[in-house]
């Protein structure tokens, strides 16, 4: 831990070891600002809370109210044509016993975890590398950035074509990769893997960018000190870069997880939830029940569950990674 | 995105001291981009990046090369063969298949969404950061709650609401919910940016007798330009790429946006893969042009979503 | 209260801002959405499933608009999501005035809610109109013995197509019996050709196998019971035998190895078949028009066809046919007054001879009574005659299950069938799943 120690010893390495301290240091700055606010306690020029009104009304109309409506519809039977009929907890007991639903929850969680495991190391490594200064890096970073410019629909369509077992790229290179018949999308693991790969292909650039931003903000002095101590690249990475990027990791992970729970576009186009139901993640199951079977009441129950799962997972993640620190920052405002 | 909460002037992260905390981050950023990061070349990461280059580059090559091929050539010779008789027929076919109408709709949706989100998140952010009342914290909490809600989960009630408002199959049907779901992140980003504005500046404005509107326009907006452009980029990309709302809330060709148009080209072009891929390439062109001219803003905007 | 003034002023400002914003939004979008979704006063919105046959509807819209003050506006909905989109929009004020459907379950929910115009009175007023169509086909579009649909496309029996060249190369003959079919599977496997093209990502193509097998094993009665809501229909031994046969076919390599990721809606299976990578294809009669659009030479000289063979010990009549009798136009009951008159006038155009001629020219066999006289004009008269005879002589024509059952059941039906073909459900598991899911 020589690297970290020397970094802490460095008079300029202010955030100290790791981010928690850095976080508290920053909070202190926040407090100071709050303190200063207290000095100028005049209301002149301050807006009233009414300034938030248009935004809040808009958000309530098209996000909060629909959310509450989902809660209501989840207790009804509604085919989209007539009007919703109250059926009590019927949908919920059906949900509880629905094997497709269990599978969907499992697949969503699996896909989320795998997405994180695949994307984080690659994006971290690429981001740190791209934070450097050589010229060719700029060109390469520009190429890496390209998938980010296309919509998930466009990319899913491209990959759907490339993965066609008879006419696509997979038909030619599949045998070399161990897919004799190019039947990647017909295989449960293969289809899930394809979704994982396509979404990684699409989103790693975004996370690379986030890590690149994070890595650039790490003070060079930390590395200088570590270099004097004789720490190598790998050691520097683990003792300086990684701890310094802690908050960036949290940010990137939250985006990744909430995103992975809702890979709807890719699933719809690439696999239609198949083979069978083996890639039917929760949002897809909701779509299928809602806008193919027109069992909109039941689909609302699925949607309500999706909200609960998404909220729970992000809260859990945020808790595990020290979101409480953030919360106090917020309260200090 | 939550990391935005941590935002504060970059300057003190580099120097480590409480050094001029009032310095707007806009000024601090370019300097940082040049002068930091690990000094030694990172070989493992360099190798990984080369591998990734192949993974990203090869499909992109196939994508672009295919657009110059004929359907029969693609089917008979396989996707990797070189286009021996390059043709522009695919571009012709796509451009005459309502492409510009779809593009126009997407541009309207994107511009209006970004405008709504910017105006609303600036006013909300301003109230959250500066208003005295306890209400403003409540407001902030409402938006925080919205962060984790996947927009897909509310598609059914949105369908109901939009239908009741007689907006089904209009661009407004897509714009309203899309903008609403861009608000939480945007408010967070802007609240973070606005909190960095030095109190003294507010005080001096107040001494001049400036009202809230003037403070907003003269001080807050100019000082939050970085945050506003992040919000603009974020909400515009969000609207540009949106799929589920248009899929369910619009129908007719005249209201079809580009993502939905691409999806529907599958049924129209069927086995004509080169035409379909041409449509994909053409759908990326407009945003690629933006990228060429505003690369830095776009990238900084996206980095801003991550919150540095 | 000194606070009052600034606060109310800022409320005022904020609401002015909100109003301005709303105004700007609506103006901007109004420019963008100039094409209205069919609620104009002077036009009727006509929805049709987009595929190789759509040009016939394009032509009729043009003809109709020359004669009518109220213009028809054709909306071509991509096939992939047609039923879903149609159903979604029927719940909104922007529903189409006239729309393409499959009769039966595809419209039964609308009938329940009184959303369709009863065409009975129009038939009474205009007996010629009723006589224009083959009665059994007209009837197939009825719900509860009330007519809601006018036949508007060709007959669509499911036909066993084969690739003549591949057969020639293998010295094979089209199958006349089930044993022939099993023999052919071996022949083609040895030659490295997939015996049957199958689009496993579009489960409705797999459904065709189930429909024929159940019919051949147990007769048309089995599905009639299921359709009438009698869940015990799934207990019929014919269903289990069908499931077992399918498993056996799959295990034999009948569909090759990568059928699970082959599609039909983007012509994957049809292209494989036309390019000689697969020898046979069980598909609706529209396959001809489809091949004609993509591989005209193949459609003209390479495409062969025959009926689905009988199965040893099967109770079903081997002359029975499954598929879609045809497609229908239905008129939305919300369309009133002048527009309704125009809409009814428009659907009547499907009974005219120039419409039938267009269908014939497109490679379809119309469901009109005068079709016999037109068959000779088909570019492939033998195909047209074959199809016509097949339908006319069939003791029973079972509507595709996914159209006969209500929308609520379709996804489960498709999923279970796909799982059966993928080996994710055993034959008994399939029967249990159907009993449970289809209500």
From TrEMBL, chain A:
Alphabetical GO biological process terms: transmembrane transport
GO CC annotations on file: plasma membrane
Domain (ABC transmembrane type-1) ranges: 105-317
Top-level taxon in the UniProt lineage: Bacteria
Alphabetic keyword roster: Cell membrane, Membrane, Transmembrane, Transmembrane helix, Transport
Cellular compartment(s): Cell membrane
Chain segments annotated as transmembrane: 51-75, 104-131, 138-159, 191-211, 249-270, 296-318
Extent of Gly residues compositional bias: 15-25
Region annotation Disordered: where it falls in the sequence: 1-34
UniProt membrane topology term: Multi-pass membrane protein
InterPro entries cross-referenced by the UniProt entry: ABC_transporter_permease, MetI-like, MetI-like_sf
Family listed: Belongs to the binding-protein-dependent transport system permease family.
Protein name: Putative binding-protein-dependent transporter
UniProtKB/TrEMBL annotation, chain B:
Transmembrane segments: 43-64, 107-129, 141-162, 174-194, 215-237, 275-294
SUPFAM superfamilies referenced in this protein's UniProt entry, alphabetically: MetI-like
Stated name of the protein: Binding-protein-dependent transport protein
Pfam family, one: BPD_transp_1
GO cellular component, one term: plasma membrane
CDD domains per the UniProt record, alphabetical: TM_PBP2 (cd06261)
InterPro entries, alphabetized: MetI-like, MetI-like_sf
UniProt entry keywords in alphabetical sequence: Cell membrane, Membrane, Transmembrane, Transmembrane helix, Transport
Family from the record: Belongs to the binding-protein-dependent transport system permease family.
Any single GO BP term: transmembrane transport
PROSITE patterns linked to this entry: ABC_TM1 (PS50928)
Keyword match Transport: yes
Biased composition (Basic and acidic residues): 1-15
Annotated compartments: Cell membrane
UniProt domain ABC transmembrane type-1: residue ranges: 103-294
Source organism, top-level taxon: Bacteria
Topology in the lipid bilayer: Multi-pass membrane protein
Region Disordered, annotated ranges: 1-37
TrEMBL record, chain C:
Keywords, ordered alphabetically: Signal
Protein name stated in the entry: Putative extracellular solute-binding protein
Entries under Gene3D superfamilies matching the protein: Periplasmic binding protein-like II
Signal listed as a keyword: yes
InterPro entries on file: Bact_solute-bd_prot1, SBP
Matches recorded under SUPFAM superfamilies: Periplasmic binding protein-like II
Transmembrane segments: none
Keyword Signal: yes
Species this chain originates from: Streptomyces bingchenggensis (strain BCW-1)
Pfam families to which the protein is assigned, alphabetical: SBP_bac_1 (PF01547)
Signal peptide start-end: 1-30
């Amino acid at each position: 831990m020589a690297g970290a120690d020397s970094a802490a010893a460095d008079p300029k390495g202010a955030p100290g070891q790791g981010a928690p301290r850095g976080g508290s240091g920053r909070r202190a700055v926040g407090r100071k600002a709050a303190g200063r606010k207290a000095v100028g306690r005049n209301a002149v020029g301050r807006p009233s809370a009414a300034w938030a009104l248009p935004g809040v009304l808009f958000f309530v109309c098209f996000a909060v109210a629909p959310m509450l409506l989902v809660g209501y519809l989840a207790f009804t039977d509604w085919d989209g044509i007539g009007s919703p009929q109250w059926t009590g907890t019927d949908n919920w007991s059906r949900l509880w016993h629905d094997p497709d639903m269990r599978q969907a929850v499992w697949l969503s969680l699996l896909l989320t975890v795998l997405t994180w495991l695949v994307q984080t190391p690659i994006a971290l490594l690429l981001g740190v590398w791209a934070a450097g200064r050589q010229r060719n890096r700029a060109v390469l970073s520009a190429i890496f950035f390209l998938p980010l410019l296309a919509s998930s629909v466009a990319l899913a369509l491209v990959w759907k074509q490339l993965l066609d077992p008879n006419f696509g790229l997979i038909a030619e290179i599949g045998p070399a990769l161990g897919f004799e018949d190019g039947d990647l999308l017909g295989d449960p693991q293969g289809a899930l893997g394809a979704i994982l790969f396509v979404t990684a292909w699409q989103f790693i650039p975004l996370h690379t960018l986030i890590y690149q931003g994070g890595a650039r903000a790490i003070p060079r002095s930390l590395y200088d000190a570590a270099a004097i101590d004789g720490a190598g690249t790998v050691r520097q990475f683990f003792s300086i870069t990684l701890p310094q990027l802690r908050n960036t990791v949290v940010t990137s992970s939250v985006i990744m997880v909430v995103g992975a729970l809702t890979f709807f576009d890719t699933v719809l186009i690439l696999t239609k939830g198949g083979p069978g139901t083996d890639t039917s993640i929760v949002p897809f199951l909701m779509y299928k029940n809602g806008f193919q079977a027109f069992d909109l009441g039941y689909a609302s129950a699925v949607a309500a569950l999706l909200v609960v799962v998404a909220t729970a997972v992000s809260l859990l993640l945020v808790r595990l990674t020290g979101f409480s620190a953030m919360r106090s920052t917020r309260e200090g405002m | 995105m939550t990391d935005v909460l941590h935002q504060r002037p970059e300057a003190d992260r580099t120097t480590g001291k409480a050094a001029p905390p009032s310095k707007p981050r806009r000024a601090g950023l370019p300097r940082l981009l040049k002068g930091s990061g690990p000094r030694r070349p990172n070989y493992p990461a360099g190798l990984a990046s080369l591998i990734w280059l192949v993974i990203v580059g090869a499909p992109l090559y196939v994508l672009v090369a295919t657009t110059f091929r004929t359907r029969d050539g693609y089917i008979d010779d396989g996707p990797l063969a070189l286009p021996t008789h390059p043709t522009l027929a695919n571009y012709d076919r796509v451009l005459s298949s309502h492409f510009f109408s779809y593009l126009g709709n997407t541009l309207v949706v994107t511009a209006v969404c970004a405008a709504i989100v910017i105006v609303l998140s600036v006013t909300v952010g301003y109230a959250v950061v500066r208003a005295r009342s306890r209400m403003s914290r409540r407001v902030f909490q409402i938006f925080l709650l919205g962060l984790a809600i996947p927009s897909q989960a509310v598609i059914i009630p949105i369908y109901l609401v939009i239908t009741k408002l007689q907006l089904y199959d209009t661009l407004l049907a897509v714009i309203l919910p899309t903008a609403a779901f861009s608000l939480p992140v945007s408010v967070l980003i802007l609240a973070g940016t606005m909190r960095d504005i030095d109190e003294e500046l507010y005080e001096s404005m107040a001494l001049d007798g400036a009202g809230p509107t003037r403070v907003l326009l003269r001080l807050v907006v100019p000082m939050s330009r970085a945050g506003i452009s992040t919000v603009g980029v974020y909400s515009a990309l969000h609207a540009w790429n949106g799929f589920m709302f248009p899929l369910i809330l619009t129908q007719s060709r005249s209201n079809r946006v580009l993502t939905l148009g691409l999806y529907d080209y599958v049924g129209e072009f069927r086995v004509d893969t080169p035409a379909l891929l041409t449509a994909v390439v053409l759908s990326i062109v407009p945003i690629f042009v933006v990228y060429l001219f505003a690369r830095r803003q776009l990238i900084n905007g996206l980095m801003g979503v991550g919150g540095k | 209260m000194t606070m009052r003034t600034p606060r109310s002023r800022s409320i005022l400002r904020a609401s002015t801002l909100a109003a301005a914003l709303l105004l700007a939004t609506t103006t901007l979008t109004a420019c963008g959405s100039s094409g209205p979704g069919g609620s104009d006063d002077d036009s009727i919105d006509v929805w049709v499933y987009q595929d190789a046959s759509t040009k016939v509807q394009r032509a009729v819209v043009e003809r109709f608009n020359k004669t009518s003050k109220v213009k028809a506006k054709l909306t071509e909905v991509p096939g992939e999501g047609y039923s879903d989109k149609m159903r979604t929009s029927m719940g909104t004020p922007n529903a189409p005035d006239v729309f393409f459907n499959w009769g039966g379950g595809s419209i039964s929910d609308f009938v329940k809610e009184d959303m369709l115009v009863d065409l009975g009175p129009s038939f009474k007023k205009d007996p010629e109109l009723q006589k224009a169509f083959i009665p059994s086909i007209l009837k197939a579009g009825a719900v509860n013995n009330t007519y809601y649909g006018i036949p508007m496309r060709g007959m669509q029996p499911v036909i066993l197509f084969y690739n003549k060249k591949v057969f020639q190369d293998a010295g094979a003959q089209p199958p006349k019996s089930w044993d022939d079919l099993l023999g052919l599977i071996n022949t083609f496997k040895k030659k490295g050709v997939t015996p049957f093209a199958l689009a496993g990502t579009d489960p409705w193509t797999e459904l065709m196998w189930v429909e024929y097998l159940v019919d051949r094993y147990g007769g048309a009665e089995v599905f009639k019971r299921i359709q009438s809501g009698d869940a015990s229909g799934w207990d019929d031994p014919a269903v289990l035998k069908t499931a077992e046969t399918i498993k056996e076919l799959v295990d034999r390599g009948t569909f090759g190895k990568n059928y699970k990721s082959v599609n039909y809606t983007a012509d994957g299976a049809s292209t494989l078949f036309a390019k000689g990578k697969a020898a046979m294809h069980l598909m609706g009669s529209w396959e001809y028009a489809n091949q004609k659009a993509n591989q005209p030479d193949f459609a003209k000289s390479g495409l062969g066809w025959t009926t689905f063979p009988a199965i040893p010990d099967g109770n079903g009549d081997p002359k029975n046919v499954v598929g879609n009798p045809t497609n229908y136009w239905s008129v939305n009951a919300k369309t009133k007054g002048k527009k309704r008159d125009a809409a009814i006038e428009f659907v009547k155009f499907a009974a005219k001879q120039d419409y039938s001629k267009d269908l014939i020219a497109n490679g379809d066999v119309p469901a009109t009574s005068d079709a016999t006289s037109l068959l000779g004009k088909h570019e492939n008269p033998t195909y047209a005659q074959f199809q016509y005879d097949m339908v006319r002589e069939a003791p029973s024509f079972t509507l595709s299950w996914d159209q006969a059952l209500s929308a609520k059941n379709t996804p489960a039906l498709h999923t279970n069938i796909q799982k059966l073909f993928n080996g994710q459900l055993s034959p008994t598991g399939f029967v249990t799943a159907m009993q449970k899911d289809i209500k």
